[in-house]
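#help-structures
NK: newbie question, is this the right format to request a structure? protein is DUF5931 domain-containing protein
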Amino acid sequence: MGLQTQLRRAIAVFRFAALGYPVLLGALAFDDLAHPVAAPVLVLALVAWTAAVSYRYTRKGYEDLVVHADLAVTALAVAASAWALAVDGRAVPISLGPWLAGVVLAWGAAWGRRSGAVAGGVIAVFGMVFRGGISENTVNEAALLVLTGFTVGHLVRLGVQAEERTRRATERTAAARERERLARDIHDSVLQVLALVQRRGNEIGGEAAELGRLAGRQEEALRALISSEAYRHPLDGRRDLRELVGRHAGEAVTVAAPATPVRLPAATAREVAAAVASAVDNVREHCPDGTRVWLLVEDDEQAVTVSVRDDGPGIAPGRLAEAAAEGRLGVAQSIEGRVRELGGAVTVVSGPGIGTEIEMRVPRPRTEGDADGDAHCGR
């Protein structure tokens, strides 16, 4: 049960309790009321409306039409009370008192401090018009209503923000624990199997040695992934894309990046890094030994661009389309799919004997907000 739900229920209780004010004062001055029949009718109407609007708020939330109707009915109640609760010999009729604050609280809780202050001002104006004009009582009532609406709206906003931060922190904690559990499972199963395949492949030799070499590369990449800061803290604000891409740097891979951090939302940075990793893995798996790879990270105000270029044999014309038709969607899903979901675009330039260049361009969020890998290098 969230803050808003609890607040709506609390306001409903307050409104019913606040009805006791005009009821008590009206009962004490009943013999002196100018219209003794109209007073109970007005009180019953207020009870009925309070019950109806409170039920609606607690069940459906703050609907625009109902919230506006609540203000209109309250303003009409102020006008009606000037006649129904008039007392013989007194210039000022009995006030509805705290009950008037109910609609002000609702407006502040629904739409914030400005709306709460506006609702308080509207009710205050009706009070001055129908209850004797500008006087000490009406001015004090106006000040209390306006300040109540403003304060409640401000506090509700702070409360909702705190609730959202708590929810996100809980999600981060749960996600971190789950990833730590997965990391342990991976370490105890997949990594050990890859290490065994690498060792046995080297012992057997021949084609098995090549399988062992590939298993060793995957083991190294997987260890880097589960030990990286991006994996252990996947939801922490923003990430520096240079750090995620830089883990590929090695003897055969050269990384060039700006001197300043390339910060992106964590989820965006992870997806871009995953697309880059897929492109690098394609080179390692499908190009001859000794193929060099260059990673270039470029950053401007509108977008971040990562280029993955190799000096391999290149991709034959039409091979990417053939791979996609065969259901091999590594490039289409792992690279183009990820970048496309981020609102970006991928450009592939390749040909026999000229290597391959994959350019991934991802727009920066406003809030700062193909084919298979088997086809790569002509395979």
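mod (FA): yep, format's fine, and the tokens are attached above. The chain has 14 helices and seven strands.
NK: thank you!
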